[in-house]
Amino acid sequence: MSGEAEATAGPPGAATGGETTAATAPDAVQARHPSDAWAAREIATLKRATKRSVAAASGIGVIVGLASAILTTLFVILPNLKPSTTNLVSLSNVVVEPNVTFGQYLQHPSTVIALRARGMDIDDIRRRSQALQGDGGVAVDFQFEVRGYGGATLQTRWTLFDGDTGDRLGESEQLDPLPLTFVARKNEADIGTWEVWVRTFDQQRKSYFIRIEMYDVTAGTRLTYQDSSKFSPSP
Fold this sequence. Notes:
- By secondary structure, this protein is of the alpha+beta class.
- It has 2 domains: 34-77; 88-227, Immunoglobulin-like, CATH 2.60.40.
- 31% of the residues lie in helices and 29% in strands.
- The protein contains 5 helices and 8 strands; from the N terminus they run ααβαααβββββββ.
- Strands 3, 4, 5, 7 and 8 form a 5-stranded antiparallel beta sheet that branches. Strands 1-2-6 form a 3-stranded antiparallel beta sheet.
- It is elongated and about 110 Å long.
- The termini are far apart.
């Protein structure tokens, strides 16, 4: 063994763990205190526990990240699963079709389908409103959009106004066999169109406009409204 090796390894019988050199006498090396061995074991145990904790935390992070990715994908594919963060109710594209009798309104395909869907007999309505079949009026089409009102019962109504004076001339409660009433079921959006009939033939006015309103029946509050353009009365 070379002198360098002997200087590194120390003489036989030297206490393990102590650093010695060739110039150090064997009896000068102090034995390790028992508390040093205990501290070394505790540090080793702590290191192993730390490694396990880091590994477990990493595994939990992977699981949480995967779950978040899955939920995000569902929200992209099925947007109505995501709760709306904005409450929105709008009425738009209010269009008045002049010179429509009540009988013509009842014969319109969209009206017939809506009446039957609600279990209403179209022939029974015609019999009960026979005197009104020839009455003149207008059909009013509009579009609605509702967001964030899932579970609420919503309903529309209309008011007929004098286009020059702004006087109220009629309310939908007086004559509306098919008011729009529905329960908002989607969390994200309910979008659709509707048509109502408004009687105008006996008002003797130069112009009119119609206000469509939407109410939250559950809460008893009006949510929004939209006015039509002014129009001339039916001949």
